[in-house]
């Protein structure tokens, strides 16, 4: 039941982020007095709608996204109401059009930052070295247990490192192979000094103390700072991944996977089917923190995809507005439509191919 529930929650969350994205466009358009005609979830035939003021809100039959319709954006429709010509999209200053367009994808980064911050303040991360378990090294007792380290201890000094994070402890052990290390512990407000000697773990091929460390919650301000910092670092990583996926090597890799018996690995592109299976497994295991993390990452990733400077993506509309500003004249949007069609075909190819591979050749979960 948890597997199905987590997938259902993920689907609902995806619809929520679609409406938040469109809500960013909507709020910015209202702020600058653009003529907003419609705000819908889905495409195709109307299932349900209502009108409030001059705007129609509702749900359509095909649940493949959503949209905010602004008068004057569609070159094939004369949808600007009489008397509202000054409120049409093309009548507005360039900076206002860019702001309205960017408000959509930027809402993704805001939501991701909020979710990362919530995780850091409730679950935490490895910024502090809190011991949650003592593990033996093969058949030998744990060096940490021999030294007197206990679950619940907070390591406040490790060798010459004050207030170490968990990564720093591993780095120190690797750099001082098998050397005794002086450790200062905070145990329930009491300071305890001891010495432990890492030993070689033949199974993992490295020196270990035999301690298991868990996440430590951050203070709210620290959580917010690091949460939005995580947005920045993951944005850079994701941009590199997108460049690789749509670059020559990524295209060759996709065709190779589709036409040969080559198996996939953890670095291959996945679709919503693969991600859905992943979050389903996490829900079944009760790992809701990882579920939220993946949702936040997917939210960020979708926002970044939307910033690619090609129409019909939001980044493409920004690029067109900038080019128009530089040239000093409007671009005939009917001439842009074929470019939009090619971009959609390419995105469709990658999306459908990734879905096929997620069913045919699922990405392995790990060793």
What is the straight-line distance between the termini? 26 Å
* Average pLDDT number: 93
Bin the strand percentage. Answer: 15-25%
Structural category is: alpha+beta
Number of domain modules: 2
Helix content: 40-55%
Q: Give the count of helical stretches.
A: 10
Q: How many beta-strand runs?
A: 10
Mind describing the biggest β-sheet? 6 strands, antiparallel
| Gross geometry | elongated
Radius of gyration: 26 Å
Low-confidence stretches: none
Query: What string, H for helix and E for strand, traces the elements in order?
Result: HEEHEHEEHEEEEEHHHHHH
SSE blueprint:
Layout: H1 2-31, E1 36-52, E2 55-70, H2 94-122, E3 125-134, H3 143-147, E4 154-158, E5 161-162, H4 166-175, E6 181-187, E7 190-196, E8 199-201, E9 206-208, E10 211-216, H5 220-245, H6 248-259, H7 272-284, H8 288-306, H9 314-327, H10 337-360
Antiparallel strand pairs: 1-2, 3-4, 3-10, 4-5, 4-6, 6-7, 8-9
Helix pairs in contact: 1-2, 1-7, 1-8, 2-5, 2-8, 2-9, 5-8, 7-8
Describe the structure.
- With 367 residues, this protein is of the alpha+beta class.
- The chain has ten helices and ten strands.
- The chain has helices spanning 2-31, 94-122, 143-147, 166-175, 220-245, 248-259, 272-284, 288-306, 314-327, 337-360, and strands spanning 36-52, 55-70, 125-134, 154-158, 161-162, 181-187, 190-196, 199-201, 206-208, 211-216.
- Strand 6 (181-187) and strand 7 (190-196) form a beta hairpin.
- It is elongated.
- 27% of the residues are buried.
């Amino acid at each position: 039941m948890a597997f199905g529930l987590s997938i259902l929650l993920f689907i609902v969350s995806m619809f929520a982020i679609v409406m938040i994205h469109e809500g960013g466009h909507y709020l910015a358009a209202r702020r600058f007095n653009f003529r907003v005609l419609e705000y819908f979830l889905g495409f195709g035939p109307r299932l349900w709608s209502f009108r409030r003021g001059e705007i129609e809100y509702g749900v359509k039959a095909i649940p493949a996204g959503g949209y905010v319709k602004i008068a004057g954006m569609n070159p094939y429709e004369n949808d600007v109401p009489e008397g509202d010509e000054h409120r049409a999209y093309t009548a507005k200053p360039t900076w206002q059009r860019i702001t309205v367009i960017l408000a959509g994808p930027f809402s993704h980064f805001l939501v991701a930052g909020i979710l990362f911050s919530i995780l850091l303040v409730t679950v935490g991360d490895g910024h502090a070295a809190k011991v949650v378990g003592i593990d033996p090294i093969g058949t030998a007792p744990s060096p940490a247990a021999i030294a007197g380290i206990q679950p619940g201890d907070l390591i406040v000094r490790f060798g010459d490192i004050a207030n170490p994070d968990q990564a720093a402890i591993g780095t120190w052990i690797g750099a001082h192979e098998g050397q005794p290390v002086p450790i200062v512990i905070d145990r329930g407000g009491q300071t305890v000094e001891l010495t432990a000697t890492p030993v070689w773990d033949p199974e993992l091929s490295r020196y270990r103390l035999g301690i298991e460390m868990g996440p430590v919650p951050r203070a709210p301000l620290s959580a917010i700072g690091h949460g939005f910092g995580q947005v920045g670092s993951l944005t850079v990583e994701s941009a590199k991944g997108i460049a690789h996926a749509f670059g020559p090597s990524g295209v060759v890799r996709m065709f190779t996977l589709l036409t040969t018996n080559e198996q996939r690995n953890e670095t291959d592109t996945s679709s919503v089917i693969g991600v859905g299976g992943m979050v389903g497994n996490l829900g079944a295991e009760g790992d809701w923190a990882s579920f939220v993390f993946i949702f936040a990452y997917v939210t960020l990733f979708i926002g970044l995809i939307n910033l690619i400077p090609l129409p019909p993506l939001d980044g493409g509309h920004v690029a067109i507005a900038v080019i128009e500003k530089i040239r000093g004249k409007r671009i005939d949007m009917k001439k842009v439509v074929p470019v939009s069609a090619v971009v959609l075909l390419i995105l469709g190819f990658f999306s459908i191919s990734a879905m096929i591979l997620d069913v045919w050749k699922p990405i392995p979960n790990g060793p």
